[in-house]
Every structure is written in C-alpha cells, then in structure tokens.
Amino acid sequence: MKLGLKPNANYGNLKDSYLFFGISKKVTAYRAGHPDLPLYRLGIGDVSRPLCDAVIKALHDAVDDQARKESFHGYVPECGIPEFRSAAAGYYARRGVTPDPEEIFVSSGASDELGDILDLFDPSSPALIMQPAYPAYVDASVMAGRRTLFLAAGPENDFLPMPPDHTEAELIYLCSPNNPTGAVYSLEQLQAWVDYANRHGAVILFDAAYEAFAEGDMPHSIFETKGAETCAIEICSLSKTAGFTGTRLGYTVIPKALERNGMNLNAMWVRNRTTKTNGVSYILQKGGIAAFSEEGLKQIRENILIYKQNAKVLTEALDSADVRYWGGKNAPYVWMQCPKGMKSWDFFDLLLHEIQVIGTPGEGFGACGEGFFRLSSFGDPEETKIAADRLRKLLANL
Ligand code: PLP
Q1: Residue among 105, 206, 240 whose CB has most ligand 1 atoms within 8 A, to mutate
Q2: Phi and psi dihedrals of 374, rounded to 5?
Q3: Residue 107 Cα: closest atom of ligand 1
C-alpha cells in the first residue's frame, strides 16, 4: 500500500497535556454533583478586567478608519506598522532601554511567537528549559524535534536556577517574572545568564509576558543587562500587561547585533515574517499604540494594581497559616508549598471538595512542580477575598 505524505513524527513524542483538561474534567464532575455551590476560580491565568477605555476608544476609531475610503488600510507592514514599533520602543525607553523600532516586531501574542521563533534555529541545537515551566516551551521544542534539557528550579534556589557549569544547550528559555512560580530574577542574576550565553554562543529566549508586574529595581527586560543585544531575543505580550488575552497582540525584540555563524537574526526574522505572515491587524495595532500612550499606561496600571491587591490578599492568607510560598509580589502568581507534604493533585481535590476553590496543581508544570500549587491573582477581587478566607480557615484546621 502506498504510504503517502509522512506527518511530522515528532508529534508522536509529545506527552498528553492533561493539566487544564484534567482540571476541567474534575470541576465539571464536581459541579454536576453540587450544582448550587459557587466555585472560586484561582486557577486560570486569564485576565478578568476588560480592556481599558483608551484602548477601546482606539479600537473603535480604527474600525471607523476601515469604513472610509480615505482612511482605509489594506495590508499593513508585516513586521509592524511604524507607529506601533515606535510606541513599543517608547515603552522600553521609560526604563532606559532604547531599542531601534526596527528591532521590534509585532506579533499576535507570545504563544504564537514562542513556537514560530524556533524557525530561526537549527533543530539539532538543544534547548535548556527550567522546570517547573510554562508548558508551551517544551511542547514547541518537541514538535520541532529539538532535544530538550531541563534545569531544576526548587526551594533550594528559590525557583531561580543559575547557569550550570556546563550544558550542551544552545537555546536557553528564561521566563521572569515566572509562570508558574512567580519568581523574578534580579538584574545581577540576569546578567550572569547573559554573560554565560555570550561566553557559550547560546541564545536566550526571554519570555517577558509578566514584565508589567515587576516592581522597584526588579528588571522588566533582559535588555536592562549589559551585552544582551548579542545573545537575547525578548518575547513580549499585551495579554497580561493590558488585558489583550482575547484580543491578541504582542511584540518581539530581536537586536540587529544578534548574529550567529555570520547570519543576522534580525534580518532572518524580517525574511521570516515577510514570508510567513501578512502582519497583524491594523485595528489591533492601533489598540496597542493606545495602550502605550500616557493615558493608556495609566489605565492599564490601574488594572495591574487590582491584580496585585488580589495577590496580596492571597499571600496574607498564606502568611497567617504559616505556609511557605514564592511569588505574588512581582508576579500575578502565588506558588505555594502544599501543606503536610500533600501531592499537588490531592491538594487540588481537597480545595475543590472542601472549600470550592480551584487552583492549579504544580505537577502540571513538570515533575519539579510536584508538591506545589499555583494560585492566580487574575480573578475578581470579591471572589478572591472569599477564596482567600476559605483557604486560610482550611489551612488553619488541617
Ligand atoms: N508566556 C507565558 C509565561 C505565559 O504564561 C503565557 C500565557 O499565559 C504566554 C506566554 C502566552 O501569552 P499570549 O497570550 O501573549 O499568547
């Protein structure tokens, strides 16, 4: 029999992703047995605040532009409309980082980009991923047939592992502020990673999806370090910064100084984008420009502060129960140790059945996440308060 086209066999190496599926199955079953009990959702990493007024107005105006012959836009530049690229560069400039707008590429969000960017690298270059990790890193690497090496993050290094003495990995994933652990690298720690990458010819893929939650001296960008322009790509998103999870917009920074084997990665990405995309919607980019305006930044900050207050409510409940946790200050996630040595799925069941609170079992983020549990601060403030109160009482009586 003729076998026909061969599919990408790497897909056969993917592990079943049962984390959110498993949660939803358990919640549905519980709900069926207890239809009248309210549930308190601290599991999902999706935002609950609507887009801010400045963004909504810009989106409406952009729709109107598309309705008139004189302001209508057909295709827009694949790498981003210049006004969007400049607005994103201006967002960086507030922190003393000054990318050339041509180093900023618009995207439909960080997830798309984390997968697509792998096109720039030879699939034989191994990747280093710290665990626990956002699941898309591992899966995108496996789909590309890339060998993946893991670096363990745990209480022993405050979930902030530093460069190993030696690794074969040439592509290094870093995420700070981190999902799921909420841990944040200091500037000195990021500098150590950048120095390591420059010494070894590695490239860092820096996931800055939660940069807007960093406070004080904590770095928002890998480009705050010295030398990152020769070893790093930064992947950013307006999802959590400005509530674009369902609207879809992000941007990626690839310095013009980033080269490997005589090839320029910025020029390669221009070639990639102009071949594989026709850009991102004019309307959405106008929304993004508004998010970076003075008014937009003020309004999106108000939403971030609401999430930060939720995180405070959650961490206060854990403090009062003397439970160890990480994150919650510079990140929207609180990563707690399960009490009494419980396994993370057992703790999930306990919270669901006893107090109707839904969190995320750490084991779903990799083996190193076993024994830990993620609470999200992206929920409704009133629901978060009730959930925190229930959690405090439950933990006190265990
Ligand atoms: N990176 C991390 C660490 C995330 O947690 C998420 C989403 O939750 C993403 C990337 C994806 O963000 P986006 O909505 O921009 O695709």
Answers
A1: 240
A2: -100, 130
A3: 15
pLDDT in tens, 168-197: 999 999 999 999 999 999 999 999 999 999
237 lines ligand 1 (CB under 6 A): yes
Specify the CATH number for the domain of residue 120.
Answer: 3.40.640.10
CA of 85 to the centre of ligand 1 (A): 20
* Number of domains observed in the structure of the chain: 2
C-alpha span between 253 and 242 (Å, rounded)? 18
263 and 157 in a single domain? The answer is: yes
Q: Which of 273, 292, 311 is the last residue of a domain?
A: 292
Could you tell me the two tokens for 38? 């309210």
User: Is residue 200 in a domain?
Assistant: yes
pLDDT tens digits for 38-54? 999 998 789 999 999 99
Ligand 1 geometric centre to CA of 69 (Å): 36
User: Per-residue confidence at 377, pLDDT binned at 50, 70, 90?
Assistant: very high
Q: Using the atom order of ligand 1, give the atom closest to the CA of residue 175.
A: 3
Q: Is the pLDDT of residue 231 over 70?
A: yes
- Tell me: pLDDT of 1 over 80: no
Q: What is the 3-state secondary structure (H, E, C) of 88-138?
A: HHHHHHCCCCCCCHHHEEEECCHHHHHHHHHHHCCCCCCEEEEECCCHHHH
What's the 111 CA to ligand 1 centre distance in angstroms?
6
